[in-house]
Each structure stands twice: as C-alpha cells, then as structure tokens.
Known about the structure:
By secondary structure, this protein is mostly helical. The protein is built from seven helices and two strands, in the order H-H-E-H-H-H-H-E-H. The protein is elongated.
Amino acid sequence: MDINVPLHGFVHLWLILAAVLAGFFAVAVNKLWAAHLSSGKQRAKAPAESSSDDQISPREPSPVADERAAGITNLILGAILLLYAALWCWLCFFYRKPMAEPHLRLDPFWSYREAFSHSGIARLGVARSITLNILLTVPLGYLLPAVFRNTKHPYVFTLLTVLTLSLTTEILQYLTRTGLAETDDVINNLLGCAAGLLAYRIAAVIVQKITRMNQSRQIESEDQGT
C-alpha cells in the first residue's frame, strides 16, 4: 500500500507504534481481568466442596458486576479497534493525492530485493515502507481475537480478516490511484498479523501463569489460616 512518505514516514511510524502499545495494553488488561474473575469464582466454589462450620467462605463475585466489567472492557477494545480502523483509512487513502495513473506490482518480495540491492537513503526508504506495512497490522493480530474471542476459530478468523482487508485495500488503491497496489503489501500485512497473534498468545500464557501463581498463593494463605 506504499505508505513510505519522505516527510511524514516517521510520524506514521510513531502513530502506528502508539496504536500497537495502546491495543496491547488494553488486551493485557482484558486478560488480567478475565483471569481475576476466573480465580475469584474458583475460590468461591472451593468452600462449597469442602465446607466446615469454622470456615468463612469468601464473597462470590457478583454476576452483574462481572457482566458490567466485561462490557466495559469490550467497549474499550471496540473503541480502540474503531480508532485503529480510522488510522488505517487515513494512512491508506485520505491523506494521499491521486496519481496520474494506477500502479501495480504483482511479483512477490520485490521490495525486499530492492532493499538489499540499494544502499543509503534508497535502502532506508524501502526498508521503512516494509516496516510500516508490517507494523500496520500488528494491532489487528491481538485486537481481533480479543474482540471476537467467542468465534469458533479466532486465529483463523483473524488471519482471514486481515487477508481480506489487505486485498480490499490494494484493490481500492489501484482503482482510486492512491497508492501502489502490490503483492508485497499483502505479505507484509499477514506477517504483521502473525506477529500480533504471537504477542496475543504470549500474553495469554503469561496471564495463565500469573493466575496459577495467585491461586496457589491464595490456597496457601487459606491453609495457613485454618
């Protein structure tokens, strides 16, 4: 999608990095909150399984409060996703001026060959374009599975969504003459999405470990109190 602009390239890079950090923070908060609710419900069920007269059961989380908190978290994630969609449209379409004629490059990895064959400023420009196109879809790699986590296959859904979005963007840029329609952009977008999915999976593993540690500490403290 050719988002390499000499005067504004680094501004675009910082905007994308800000979206990456904001989205990852929201997903991390969402996972930590879900783990907190899950551990709270498990602690509430434990006294019922081994009840005694001298035990004081912890307060079970309110379903209304849980639903309200989950709704707020989903609202925040949805708002970030909408803001990201607006950033996508601005970067790919609205700030551009139409070219005299459409441009098309269908040979894969041509930009990588250009980056290795050039030197100096030319190499920096091509490398920056590749980096921006990869970073552009990193937030989608963890925002989409977080927002649409109830789908049957969230990872496959995310990859197919990014593939469809990238192909649609390239076609529209070709038709409106607002950018270079190329195969490399689709490849880079999928690479960025895969990186976001990997970050999402790593965050899930970290949260699971934190949850297990908190649960074991809670069990140990309850055992020491009895």
